Fold this protein.
Amino acid sequence: MSEQYQARIPIYPRSVKGRFRNLKWAVLALAYGVFFLLPWLRWERAFGPDQAVLFDIPGRRFYLFDLLVHPQDIFWLAAVLIILALLLFMVTGLAGRVFCGYFCFQTLWTDVFMAIERAIQGDRGARMRLDRSGWTAGRLLKKGATHAVWLGVAFLTGLTFTLYWADAPALTAAFFTGQAPFAAYATTGLLTLTTWLLAGVLREQVCTYMCPYARFQSVMFDRDTLIISYDRDRGEGTAGRATLRDGGRDLAARRGGGVGDCIDCDYCVQVCPVGIDIRDGLQYQCIHCALCVDACDAVMDRLKWPRGLVRYTSEHALAGQRTRLLKPKTLGYGVPLLLITLLLAWGVAHQAPLDASVSQVRQPLFVRLSDGSIQNSYEIKVNNKTQYPMTLEVRVSGLDGAVLDMGRIEQVMLMPEHRTTLLARVRYQAPPGAARQQALVFELVPVMPAGLDPVLVGSQFILR
């Protein structure tokens, strides 16, 4: 069994500076700022909680700043998921796995965990020596401190996620006094464990073996996709790569002798978080973080040689051809993406303030009164989706001679974000030969606030 499976080869990524590393730090700072601070952002509302983003499961509503999402708006979630999928596919077709390299949660948290490890244990060489030193007191202290800080960050991650589902200050106080619901402790504990495990222990194995995106991403690539590439013609020349000792530092002399620009320093390999050599070509493990580009550029700058030996480019560009970004595949992703985004924006902007539905009471299906008229009963469910009180009148139309009986209810007042169910009876004198089914429309007319359009809900008036 041991011969069939290779043991994990430890990866010790080296630190690097450069424009792509700075971009990754900027994205990480933005992502962490939004994630950790958003539950604490207060937001004034006429009615409801003062938390800017709150997913209120018991109340069956989501608060997103000024937007209030109800269960009836579930199609918005479907639209958002479709938009994100199309955007991911389009960006992958254009620029490879930039999502993995810059925006994926696994990448963001792993970057922070590696920064913590580097701050406590040192850079690549120091960590390698530490692991070879045996289980000394110094190693135990540094490893223990590393995992302790990792667990602290993981705990903050789990707790912050939990705070999105309840009032953050109140839940935090209840959490540390042992009064929070069991679900809060279970969620926080599970996310603490998984964050520590995935970002601290497994790391690149998540991207290499666990993430399905790494396996099917290649079907979205083509020869115009911008990927992290090593310019083999420039780097190898005709005589192959050579170190500075073997090929010299004079670029013209190296090229005159057929020696490539790559000095075989392995800096690009040492900074790679997934442990690949980009000089071997495109590999499914590559997350397009471009740290190898920063490493190679740093070496070229020190030698005063041109940058770009490792860079974002396409296979067509490497072959001396033109890279086409605007192509049928891009339009195939872009046009539906634009249309669905516009439809979602229109749906959110034109959200109905009132949601209502009507259904006929089936037991009994109808009642024949002593005067020969027929009476049907209906249930009208009304949901006030606004942040202000609403007063409604219920009317009936579409059937001549129909009489609406709401009992003692003349007007219905709904508080913000409240719902109610009304019982309405409709009497109708059925003339001889009348149709068995006729259209009937209930009108919910807002009396206060004024200016809102009436909501129409229809049914069929059953005659027997």
Q: What stands out?
A: DSSP finds 17 helices and 14 strands in the chain. Residues 137-163 form the longest helix (27 residues).
